[in-house]
Design a protein that fits this description.
Alpha-Beta Plaits, 40% strand, Ribosomal Protein S5, domain 2, 2 domains, 5-stranded antiparallel sheet, 10 strands, 198 residues, alpha+beta, 28% helix
Length: 198
């Protein structure tokens, strides 16, 4: 599964109608709804504001008074076909005076989303492990040389150095191997395992 980074905005014109498509990374239905309201407010004179979003356990689409099945559902199908998750697509239409018909609308909304996805930067959903590691100051100098390719690192200091490290699960065995030959005892605790976009 993959998602997008940041936001995308793209416009196409078909038979004098403007189709402005937005892509957002969202991780909840509430965030999707908030973005939809924001775009509706920004384009309060638009003829239609069509949307679709896909989350891990939820997906929704809305034609916004376009003929049923010609706008929201095709948008959602593009997201599914691209194996996306946590993505909201909104297409704003300003009617140009020429009717497109059902098949024309379907093609227009599909094209709007497809063209926008070409501009997107993607992230991939991968399994990660977050660990808490407490080691001596001496050993921390060694560790600092091996902090590449980690998702995140946080440190706190007392009589020892405590690290909070998130790493891809596939890299964890090699990372743990670094500590086998340490002279001083260290404490390593797995805090959580989860899927993250990286």
């Amino acid at each position: 599964m993959k998602s997008i980074k940041g936001e995308v905005k793209n416009e196409i014109i078909i038979e004098k109608s403007r189709f402005i498509t937005y892509l957002f990374n969202v991780d909840s239905s509430q965030k999707a709804k908030d973005k939809i309201q924001e775009i509706r407010k920004e384009h309060n004179e638009a003829t239609h504001v069509v949307y679709a979003y896909i989350l891990e356990n939820d997906s929704r689409s809305n034609d916004d008074n376009e003929p049923k099945g010609t706008a929201g559902l095709p948008t959602l199908e593009v997201l599914r076909k691209e194996n996306l998750i946590n993505v909201l697509a909104i297409t704003v239409r300003y009617f140009g005076g020429i009717k497109l018909g059902a098949s024309g609308l379907l093609r227009a909304y599909t094209k709007g989303v497809s063209e926008s996805l070409k501009l997107a930067t993607f992230t991939t959903l991968k399994e990660s492990i977050t660990i808490e590691l407490t080691i001596t100051y001496k050993d921390s100098f060694f560790l600092e040389k091996h902090l590449d390719n980690l998702i995140s690192v946080k440190k706190s200091y007392s009589d020892k150095v405590k690290y909070n490290i998130t790493i891809l699960k596939e890299l964890y065995p090699n990372f743990k191997e670094l500590f086998i030959n340490f002279n001083d005892k260290y404490d390593l605790v797995i805090i959580k395992e989860e899927k993250l976009f990286v």
